[in-house]
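Action item from last week, closing it out:
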Amino acid sequence: MGDMTNSDFYSKNQRNESSHGGEFGCTMEELRSLMELRGTEAVVKIKETYGDTEAICRRLKTSPVEGLPGTAPDLEKRKQIFGQNFIPPKKPKTFLQLVWEALQDVTLIILEIAAIISLGLSFYHPPGENNEGCATAQGGAEDEGEAEAGWIEGAAILLSVICVVLVTAFNDWSKEKQFRGLQSRIEQEQKFTVVRAGQVVQIPVAEIVVGDIAQVKYGDLLPADGLFIQGNDLKIDESSLTGESDQVRKSVDKDPMLLSGTHVMEGSGRMVVTAVGVNSQTGIIFTLLGAGGEEEEKKDKKAADGAADSHAVDSANTSLVNGKMQDGNVDASQSKAKQQDGAAAMEMQPLKSAEGGDADDKKKANMHKKEKSVLQGKLTKLAVQIGKAGLVMSAITVIILVLYFTVDTFVVNKKPWLPECTPVYVQYFVKFFIIGVTVLVVAVPEGLPLAVTISLAYSVKKMMKDNNLVRHLDACETMGNATAICSDKTGTLTTNRMTVVQAYVGDVHYKEIPDPSSINAKTMELLVNAIAINSAYTTKILPPEKEGALPRQVGNKTECGLLGFVLDLKQDYEPVRTQMPEEKLYKVYTFNSVRKSMSTVIKLPDESFRMYSKGASEIVLKKCCKILNGAGEPRVFRPRDRDEMVKKVIEPMACDGLRTICVAYRDFPSSPEPDWDNENDILNDLTCICVVGIEDPVRPEVPEAIRKCQRAGITVRMVTGDNINTARAIAIKCGIIHPGEDFLCLEGKEFNRRIRNEKGEIEQERIDKIWPKLRVLARSSPTDKHTLVKGIIDSTHTEQRQVVAVTGDGTNDGPALKKADVGFAMGIAGTDVAKEASDIILTDDNFSSIVKAVMWGRNVYDSISKFLQFQLTVNVVAVIVAFTGACITQDSPLKAVQMLWVNLIMDTFASLALATEPPTETLLLRKPYGRNKPLISRTMMKNILGHAVYQLTLIFTLLFVGEKMFQIDSGRNAPLHSPPSEHYTIIFNTFVLMQLFNEVNARKIHGERNVFDGIFRNPIFCTIVLGTFAIQIVIVQFGGKPFSCSPLQLDQWMWCIFIGLGELVWGQVIATIPTSRLKFLKEAGRLTQKEEIPEEELNEDVEEIDHAERELRRGQILWFRGLNRIQTQIEVVNTFKSGASFQGALRRQSSVTSQSQDVANLSSPSRVSLSNALSSPTSLPPAAAGQG
C-alpha cells in the first residue's frame, strides 16, 4: 500500500466498503457525503436520516460516554470497512532517480560527451595511421603498445564521472532517509486523546478509527472528521479548509461538523469520529489532487532537480493539511502496508512544514521567509561569480591550445591537411577540449551546495541530541545570526512546575501553606469545590513514577498548582469531581487570552446556579464586590479595600516573583434563568474566596544560558502574560536585567500607548524609540508579542537588520512564531498549532537548548567558511596551473582524470570533513555576523591567496626545473598517448599532498595559530584525511595509464610529503602578517543592502531576486509567469468541472509554488534560477480565490 497512488487506495477502499457495509448501520459513503454538508444543512440531514448524533453512535456501535470497547478484532474490522487514518504518501525517490538527477549536471554532461568522443576516436584506426607526417608537432613517436591504450583516458574520465555521480546520489539519498526519519520522529510524538472502554487514553493519530470518541480541547489540530457530541464553548478556526478566518462556534443543534485539519481555538468537547484518512475532508481534497499531483510533479521535478532540499517537493504532494510521513512505528497489522517502501506512509498528523491547506494563511505570514536564508543568498552569488570566471578561463584555454596547434602544424611547419590525418587532428582537438572542460570542472565549486547540505543535515541530526527538533533546515543556520531572542517566561525560563507558596484566605495573609485547621470549614468547602470543578478535568496530579520524586503534574500547570494546594490542605478533589462529572457542568467559559479567567456554572440541588471563577488576581478582583471573612461569611469589598489589598497582598507576592490567582464564586437564582451569553453581567458581582501566590521556580541552568547569550551579543527579552512585578522579579533572577542598568519594563497597555499615534496606528519610529532598551514586556497579549517581533525585524534603527528568534507554546503565539526569523515551539507544553508555526521544536522546553541552537547555527556558518577557504585555494591553483601549463607546454600538467580526483577530494570529501566539525563554546564569544558580513573575510582572503602563492611557486618550479632536480626525463611536450612520466606524476602527487595539509590549515578561519586544536574530537575529519592519503598512494603507485601516473621511488615520495608539510609552516607565516595592513584585499560573497528588499516592498507580485540570478534569467521569468497563469486557469476550470472543493485546488497551487521556493534554496546555481522563476507568481492563487 505504501506505493499505491491515492486513487488506487481510494478505489480499494470503495470495494471494501461495498462488501462490508452491512455490518454497521451506515456505510462509509453515507458518512462521507454527510461530512460534506455544513451548518444547518447538516443538522437537517442528521435529523432526517438518523434522528440525532446518539443514533449515529448506536449505528457505529459506540457509546458517547464509554467509547469503543477497543478490542483488536473490532478495531481491525473498522479499519477494513472505513479505512485507516493515514494517507499513502508519494514514494521517496529511488536511488536510480537520484543518480539520474545527479547526471543532469552540465559540466558532467560535457565531460561525458568529450570522453565518449575520445573513446570512439581511440578505437578508430585510419589507414594513414602510420603516416608520420600527420602530427609531429608534439615531436617524438609513440610505440604501438601505447596506441592500444588510447582508450584508457576516455574510460577513466567516464569512470570518475560515475564516481562523482554515485557520491552525490548517495548523499541525496541518505539525506532523504534522514528526513523521513525526522518526520517519523515528529509524528511518533503526535498522540490524540480518545475514550476507549470508559478509559481516557492517548493513542497515536494513525490508530484512530471511525466510531472512536475523541476528546478535543483548546490548541488541538483535529486528526479526523467527526460529529460534535457534547462540550462547552467550542470554537474552531476552519480557515485551512474554507479560507474564512472567522472562528466557527460549534454546537450540537446548530453546527456539529468537526473537520480534520482545523484548529480548536477555544473550549473543549467530545466528538464521534465519522471519517478518517482518505475519506476525511482533507483526505478527499488530497485524493482530488492526487491526479493533479502527477502534472505538478513534472513541474516540480524541473524546479527541484537535484535540489538539495528535495524532500520539500515530496511533501508538497504528500502532506495533507496535516499529513505526515509515518515510519514503521505501528503494530504488525499495519506493517504489511509499510513493507514496500520500508518506511513511509502518510498519516493524518498535524505536524508538517509543508501544509497543503494552510498555504494561504501561511503565505501572508511567510512573506518574509521568502528571502533566501542569508547563507544561501551569499553562496548562490559567490558560486555564480566563480562559475563565470571558470567558464572564461576554460574557454581561453581551449582557444589558445587549438590556435597554437593549428598555427604550429599548418603555418610554421607548413603541413598540408591530409584527409587520412583528419582523425588524428580531431583526436588532438578532443584532447584540448577535454583539458578545457577539466579546467571548468575544477573551477566550478559544485561542492558548495553539497557542503551546505551536509553541514545542515549533520547539524540537524546532532541538534536532536541537544533537544532541538529542526523542522526547517535553514532555521538552523539563521539561528547563528540571531541578535535578539524574545522568550516566554512560563516553562521556558522557569520549570513550569507550579506550586502555591502563599495564600490570602479569610482576611489573613499566610506566607506559607496555612494549617487546614486555621481555615473556616465553609470557606474550605467552597475553596475545594471552586478549584476541583472549575478546572479542566483532564488536569490531574498523579503519584510520582519513582520513589522520592515529585508528584506528576498532568494537564494545565497553573491548575495543577491549585489542585496541589487542595492536596496540601489535606483535602481531596477527586470525590468532588466524581459527584459532579463533566457532563453535568451547566456552562463553561473557558480560559482565553481576552478573558484571562475561567468560569464554570453548576446547578445546585435546589435548582439555583452557582458559578466558580478563577483568573489573574487584578482582573478577577475588579469584578468582586464581596470577600469571605475569617468566619466564612461574605463581607462588602469596596474599591478602596481592593486598592489596599493590591498594595498589601498582591504586590508583595508579585515582588517575590509569584503569580497571583484569585478564586471567586457567585450564586444565581433559579428563575429567571440568567442570560448566560451576556458575559459582562454574568462575570460580575463575584465573592472572593481567596488569592493564592503560585511560584514557578527559575530553571537552574537558565541564568548561565542567558549570560552566554549576552556575551555572544544576543539580547534576551522576556514577553509574558504575568503582571509586571512578577515578571521583573523573575527577569532579575534570570539575569535578563541587572539592577542599576538603563532598561525598560513595560506592560502591554503602556507599550501600546507608546507605539501608537493619535489615530491608534502603530508607527515604526515610535517602536524604534522603545525596543532597543525594552527587556521585559508584561501582561502582554499575543498581538503585542507579534507587534514587538515585527517592529524589531522591520527596524532600520541599527545598521544590521535584527534577526529575531521567538519562543511560544500557545495557539495564540502562532503569528509571532511565523513572523520571527526562527520560531521555537515547546515540545512538551506547546499546542499543535504552535508547533505547526514553528521552525524548531524544543523537545525539553528549556531555554538553554536555544543557546545550543545558536552554537550549532554559528558552527554551520563557520563550517561553510572553512570549506570555502579550502575549496577556493584549490580552485585558484588548479585553474592557473592548468591554464598556464596548457598555454606554455600545450598540455595541462594535471590530466583530466587527475583533476577529477582532485575535484572529488576537494568537493565531496572536504565538504564532509570540514562541514562536520563539532561546535565549541568559543563560538559564543563573538558577536553575530549579521546579514551583510561577507562570506569570505579579509583573513580568509589572505589565507587563500597566501597558500595559492606557495602552491603555485612550487608547482611551477617542479614543472620547469623538476626534471633537473630529480634527474628524470622531462614530461613536457610529450606526444599524444605517450606513457605517463615520473615528472608529471611528482607534480600531481605534490599538488594533492599540499591540498591535504592545507585541509588541516582550513580548520581555522579567524587566523588562530593552533590548527590542530580539537582535531581528535572530529573522527570524520581524521578518517577522511588519512583515507585520502591512502588512496593517493594507491593511485600513484598502481594507477598507471588511466591516472597518467608512473610509480615513484621512496625518496621522491619523501620530497612530495616534505613540500606538503611546508603548507603547515607557511600557514604560520601567513598568520603572522596582520590583516589590517592588507587593505587592498577584497572581501567576497556579501549580500548588498540593495538585495535585501524589506517585506513591504515585496508586494504581491514581486519576488526578491538575487542579482546574480537576475542576470541568468530575465526572459525566463515572463515566460514562466505566463505559463503559470495558464496553468492556474486550466486547473480552476478542471476543478469546477469536477465540482471539487475549488479552493482546495487553488490553495494547492499556491502551496506548490511556495514549495518550489524552498526547493530552490539549497540547489546549485545552475538550477536555482529556474525554480525561483517558477515561483514568481506565488501571489496569484489567493487573488484568484478572492474573485471566485
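Closing note: The first strand starts at residue 191 and ends at 196.
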